Amino acid sequence: MTSTRQDAWTSDEDLLLAEVVLRHIREGGTQLAAFEEVGRKLSRTSAACGFRWNSYVRKQYKTGIESAKKQRKEFKSSAVPAPIFVQNAPEEGTGVKTLTLDEIISYLQNLKNGNGDSLETAEENKKLSLKIKELEKKVNRLEQEKQMLQTNLIVVRDDYKALIEIMERAKRVVLSDSTVKEKVEEVK
Predict the structure, then answer these.
(1) Maximum alpha-carbon separation in the chain
(2) Lowest mean pLDDT among 19-28, 34-43, 83-92, 143-152
(3) Closest among 101, 105, 135, 98 to 119, alpha carbons compared
(4) What phi and psi, each to the nearest 5 degrees, are found at residue 97?
(5) Alpha-carbon distance 6 to 84, whole Å?
(6) Distance, CA of 64 to CA of 8 (rounded, Å)
(7) Measured between alpha carbons, how far is 32 from 50 in angstroms, rounded to an integer?
(8) Confidence band (pLDDT; 50, 70, 90) for 60?
(9) Looking at the predicted structure, is the pLDDT value of residue 74 above 70?
(10) Residue 133 scores a pLDDT above 70
């Protein structure tokens, strides 16, 4: 009969352990230092973290370990910093995203300066602000044009009514003239 321990490892704890150990490998640190760091964060002993790493988690991150060792080797052998790889947890897939050190430094500098947005986002915000101003000007111009057209429509409508009245009067005059001619002819 097996029972679940109260202090069983969660998948989030396993993920944290893997991320910290891989970072230490990549940066040339020791696994012992990684176990101590994780132990402080999870309130566990470094020995418990080491045991969990060696007995379970390490087997799930074989490619990540090889990649981290390769990066460490490339970093030490070249003056140009090697890219940093961030590997997804095994249950999330096997995708790997590459970040350059310059991208990371730029991002951190933006955060430090209070610019939480990236340069691309700031540029896009600037473009969108200009576009909004242009559209507001266009809306104002169209509103003025609409007012002018409404005023012209009222004038045309009034002129049309006046024309109709003139036509009606002319019709009455013509009818009355023809009635007068008929009576004149009858009298003759």
Answers:
(1) 138
(2) 83-92
(3) 105
(4) -110, 130
(5) 36
(6) 24
(7) 7
(8) very high
(9) yes
(10) yes
Torsion of CA 103, 107, 113, 118, to 10 degrees: 100
CB 67 within 8 A of CB 87: yes
**Tokens for 25?**
């490998």
Residue count (the chain): 188
Beta bridge partners of 84: 99
Higher pLDDT pick, 179 / 152: 152
* CB contact burial 15-50 (16+ within 10 A = b; e otherwise): bbbbbbbbebbbeeeebeebbbbbbeebebebeebb
Question: What are the DSSP calls for the chain, one per residue?
Answer: -----TTPPPHHHHHHHHHHHHHHHHHT--HHHHHHHHHHHHT--HHHHHHHIIIIIHHHTHHHHHHHHHHHHHHHH-SSPPPEEEEPPGGG-S-EEEE-HHHHHHHHHHHHTT--S-HHHHHHHHHHHHHHHHHHHHHHHHHHHHHHHHHHHHHHHHHHHHHHHHHHHHHHHHHHHHHHHHHHHHH-
Per the structure block, which two tokens stand in for 108? 């951190």
Residue 98: what are its φ and ψ, rounded to 5°?
A: -100, 130
Q: What is the mean pLDDT of the chain?
A: 83
The two three-digit tokens of residue 55, written as one number: 């007995």
